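Lecture notes, continued. The same structure-token format from the folding unit now serves as the input rather than the output. Read the line below as a description of shape only.
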């Protein structure tokens, strides 16, 4: 297929016209023939089979059943009404449910006459049910045309309002295949096609839109998923290889006096095996003459900070400056205090730069930074400002990575002609499969061992009705000299409400834990940074025993004497957030506790989250559950979902295909790094196109 035919504006496809073209563009992002071709169906209706009610499975699949309605009734529920019909065949009964259009349905449905119903089958209240089924009288059905597998395309309300129904899209797709004669250029090598037994491109595209049967559909899907993941991996791996080859990095070949002195005289504890291994991996990068771009994953409390400190010392030993960027002022502050304490005895100059640093101090920091007198700069986003210029930045460390966007990372990078080495630290464990796709171009180190002597945190779930007992427990712990966090949810959409919850909670806590025996700190988003810091500080210094807060304390705060974490309305938190919060305790030698408070009404997903938290302290395990519950987009936040904007593959479900894709991409690059072999020409050609388009599917076809 000539590429330019596929680039034809969609308006020229027979049956489209300017109005439809506009709607297709705004609603589905379709500009060209190619874009339409790459609009893959979400699902298919398999109308080749009829099921008996007794044969239905809890598979949530679309099914077709013949039977009749024996009664129909309206059921009142909290939000509006629903219409429920009992539907039977000779093997059993099920329910049909409508939430909308009830009047019309009531008036038009016929009792005791055979219908063919079609739709998604749910298991609900011990029965199968189907909401808003497609229905047709059996007599009509028998007259109609039989389509085997009917594709269902993504749709929007606007599309259907403008009459671009699924049937219309279907027609347009047929027209597209007619005008292009269905001839599409192959984009993988013969070798791959043979080895993986993949359908040729043209055949895969045909069968994804017009599947002849289940088997060919499955093969078409496999081929397209593989291809999608293969090119993403190829891109990531090439990027990584290029970076290693081409992007010169500062050579930190000296392990010098600072590093040694610190290791021998100032290290406050013996490093764990994992910490030692990671430092070794980092040292290998720094001495490789290529730029380091490493992601350091380690669960909360695994001791990433000391690794950061020692890496910074390597930079200093080689005559460079280093910086550490944290996502919040509190955290930057804490890093600054801790690092200054460790390093100032060695005559190393550190400074803190955040939004609330005063202008005069800021100016002197700028000057000291430019002269090179300042060795280490710690701070927030403030580091990214143009005015912040280093004398010779050799290393940039970013803590808690997923809160910073990729663009921000790049900005740090551009502070020098030669990019500094980059170490990104995250406490949010990223499941391996996801890491492979999101950070396939980074190197990854993992601290998978906690410092010795830590007792696993005991986690329990308590209902609000048990609050008195929980409060008694808090009193007992405080009597032993411990400190307690009580955290309230903060969800942007209802900030006012959250604030009220927090204040109500605070008042009741203040009543139950009265002065002068108890001192309480409170920190929330509406406070001025200075006030926040003041309250935080009192807690850090042990002047207050209870810290009532919204999730601002989520990230990184370290108070080893705090041993109880109470999370209010725990059902409203996501898993990774719960895990992060829990990580605020268990940092000292004492047994720590995490108490998840909820009301009695819980969704099944919330139950799964709570059960997972109670069952395990392992961040990776929790991340896997989270990934399954929420899917990759939500898990990583929108800023990174670009890479995950997959059209057909699913990073979670297609894990095996992903592994195969990575394996074959790796092998290809090893055997033919320049993609110069004749048989790899289709891949080379596709890959070159790949650089020119933002959407991966624009070049795969
Ligand atoms: P995180 O990985 O969450 O950033 P930190 O670096 O804040 O963890 O470390 C958590 C706590 O563990 C700190 O109090 C730190 O001093 C301590 N710590 C780190 N490494 C060790 C170790 N090898 N032995 C004992 N304590 C350690
Ligand atoms: Mg940390």
């Amino acid at each position: 297929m000539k590429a330019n035919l596929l680039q034809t504006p969609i308006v020229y496809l027979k049956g489209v016209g300017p109005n439809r073209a506009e709607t297709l563009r705004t609603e589905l992002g379709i500009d060209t023939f190619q874009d339409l071709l790459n609009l893959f169906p979400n699902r298919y209706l398999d109308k080749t089979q009829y099921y008996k009610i007794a044969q239905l499975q809890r598979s949530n699949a679309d099914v077709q059943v013949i039977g009749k309605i024996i009664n129909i009734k309206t059921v009142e529920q909290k939000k509006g009404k629903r219409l429920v019909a009992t539907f039977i065949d000779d093997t059993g009964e099920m329910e049909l449910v409508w939430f909308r259009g009830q009047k019309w349905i009531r008036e038009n449905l016929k009792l005791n006459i055979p219908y063919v119903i079609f739709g998604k089958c749910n298991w609900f209240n011990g029965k199968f049910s189907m909401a808003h089924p497609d229905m047709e009288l059996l007599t009509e059905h028998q007259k109609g045309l039989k389509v085997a597998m009917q594709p269902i395309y993504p749709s929007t309300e606007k599309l259907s309002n403008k009459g671009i129904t699924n049937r219309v899209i279907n027609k347009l797709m047929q027209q597209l295949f007619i005008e292009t004669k269905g001839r599409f250029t192959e984009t993988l090598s013969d070798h791959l096609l043979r080895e993986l037994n993949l359908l040729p491109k043209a055949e895969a595209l045909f069968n994804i839109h017009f599947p002849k049967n289940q088997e060919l559909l499955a093969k078409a899907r496999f081929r397209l998923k593989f291809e999608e993941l293969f090119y993403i991996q190829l891109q990531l791996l090439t990027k990584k290889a290029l970076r290693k080859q081409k992007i010169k990095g500062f050579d930190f070949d000296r392990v010098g006096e600072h590093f040694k002195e610190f290791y021998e005289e100032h290290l406050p504890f013996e490093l764990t095996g994992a910490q030692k291994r990671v430092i070794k991996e980092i040292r290998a990068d720094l001495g490789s003459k290529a730029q380091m771009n490493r992601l350091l994953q380690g669960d909360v409390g695994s001791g990433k900070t000391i690794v950061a400190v020692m890496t910074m010392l390597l930079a200093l030993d080689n005559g460079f400056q280093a910086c550490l960027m944290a996502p919040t002022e509190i955290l930057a502050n804490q890093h600054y205090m801790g690092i200054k304490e460790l390093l100032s005895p060695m005559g190393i100059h550190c400074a803190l730069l955040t939004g609330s640093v005063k202008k005069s101090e800021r100016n002197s920091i700028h000057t000291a930074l430019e002269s090179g007198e300042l060795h280490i700069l710690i701070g927030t986003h403030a580091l990214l400002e143009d005015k912040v210029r280093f004398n010779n930045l050799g290393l940039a460390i970013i803590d808690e990575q997923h809160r910073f966007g990729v663009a921000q990372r790049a900005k740090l990078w551009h502070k020098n002609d030669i990019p500094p080495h980059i170490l990104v630290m995250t406490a949010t464990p990223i499941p391996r499969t996801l890491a492979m796709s999101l950070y396939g171009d980074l190197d990854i180190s993992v601290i998978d061992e906690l410092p010795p002597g830590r007792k696993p945190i005991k986690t329990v779930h308590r209902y609000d009705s048990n609050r008195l007992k929980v409060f008694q427990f808090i009193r007992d712990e405080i009597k032993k000299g411990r400190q307690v966090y009580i955290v309230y949810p903060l969800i942007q959409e209802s900030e006012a409400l959250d604030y009220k919850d927090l204040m109500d909670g605070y008042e009741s806590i203040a009543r139950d834990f009265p002065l002068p025996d108890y001192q309480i700190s409170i920190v929330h988003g509406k406070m001025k940074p200075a006030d926040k810091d003041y309250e935080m500080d009192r807690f850090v210094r042990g002047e207050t025993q209870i810290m009532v807060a919204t999730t601002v304390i989520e990230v990184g705060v370290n108070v080893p004497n705090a041993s109880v974490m109470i999370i209010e309305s725990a059902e409203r938190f996501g898993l990774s957030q719960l895990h992060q919060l829990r990580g605020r305790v268990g940092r000292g030698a004492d047994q720590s506790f995490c108490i998840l408070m909820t009301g009695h009404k819980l969704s099944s997903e919330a139950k799964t989250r709570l059960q997972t938290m109670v069952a395990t302290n392992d961040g990776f395990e929790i991340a896997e559950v989270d990934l399954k519950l929420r899917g990759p987009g939500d898990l990583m936040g929108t800023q990174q979902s670009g890479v995950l904007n997959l059209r057909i593959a699913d990073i979670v479900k297609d894990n095996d295909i992903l592994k195969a894709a990575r394996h074959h991409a790796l092998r290809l690059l090893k055997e033919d790094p320049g993609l110069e072999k004749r048989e790899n020409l289709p891949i080379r050609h596709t890959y070159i196109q790949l650089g020119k388009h933002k959407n991966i599917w624009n070049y795969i076809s």
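Point for the exam: Residues 636-643 have pLDDT under 50 and may be disordered.
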